[in-house]
Specification:
alpha/beta, Rossmann fold
Length: 128
């Protein structure tokens, strides 16, 4: 099992970016890179080399599922685990995200104080 240290979070809302970054760095102790959209994530992912990618589902331009597909085209990071974060958490939607290869789905709005624990729990459950 590898240690989870570096997280890339792709999220278009600045207020959510700020809360998540503080929560993941201050509470969780992670090294976090925030990207404001799929295009930025594709440009920065290889240099940052995250252990895990958090993807917002609904973003303008390239949405989360499309971003995931584009990331998978890069051999260096194609196998990086992805967790979707979204308010769209009907069981059929969650099943669809998992079918796309997501480890899990974290519902939004998330609790900043428990977000790091939720992520670590998913990481552990998937034996990463």
């Amino acid at each position: 099992m590898s240690e989870l240290k570096k997280i890339m979070y792709v999220e278009d809302q600045p207020d959510i970016q700020m809360v998540a970054k503080v929560a993941l760095e201050s509470v969780g102790g992670f090294d976090v890179l925030i990207c404001s959209g799929g295009e930025e994530a594709l440009q920065k992912v290889i240099a940052f080399d995250p252990d895990l990618i958090l993807l917002d589902v609904m973003m303008p331009g390239m949405d989360g599922p499309t971003t995931k597909k584009e990331l998978e085209k890069k051999p260096e990071i194609a196998s990086k685990p992805v967790i979707f974060m979204t308010a769209k958490i009907q069981p059929t939607e969650v099943a669809e995200y998992k079918k796309m290869g997501a480890l899990d789905v974290i519902p939004k709005p998330f609790d900043p104080m428990t977000l790091s624990d939720q992520i670590r729990e998913i990481w552990t459950q998937n034996n990463l």
